[in-house]
Design brief:
140 residues, alpha+beta, 2 domains, two-stranded parallel ribbon
């Protein structure tokens, strides 16, 4: 609600706001219908002045801010419980780039029980099905 408004053409972005959308988080085959036009998500984003960024693009921006190269958006996403936590940690990293690694370390410690539970579920699932597939676990 803070960044947009309702108009006769539908939801619009307020002037001066540049929207950023995780470019790899949508299906490129998806279409958007605007009136009688059917646009790709990329076309619609361009029309609405929304930048579509890949995770690597956002990593580059963070690294230019002074965030250490070992800190990536992917690491934040794989260690967070949900989207809200991803936003919270990325915001903290954006505002305090020198403490980025500490932010990720705190996230890992905070969510250790979640990841342990996931490992237990995977182990139980393997045992119940008799599968011996290799499971990749987070080690860093």
């Amino acid at each position: 609600m803070d960044f947009g408004f309702d108009s006769q053409q539908g939801r619009m972005i307020k002037q001066g706001v540049i929207g950023i959308f995780a470019g790899t988080a949508f299906n490129p085959k998806d279409k958007v219908k605007v009136g009688s036009e059917i646009l790709s998500v990329a076309q619609y984003a361009a029309r609405m002045s929304i930048q579509l960024l890949k995770a690597s693009d956002l990593n580059e921006i963070l690294h230019k801010l002074g965030v250490h190269k070992s800190v990536t958006v992917q690491k934040v996403c794989t260690r967070a419980r949900n989207e809200g936590e991803v936003r919270e940690v990325l915001s903290k990293i954006w505002n305090e780039p020198k403490n980025a690694q500490d932010s990720i370390d705190q996230l890992v410690a905070k969510n250790a029980s979640v990841f342990e539970f996931e490992r237990e579920l995977e182990t139980a699932s393997e045992e119940s099905t008799g599968q011996e597939d290799c499971i990749a676990l987070r080690t860093d």
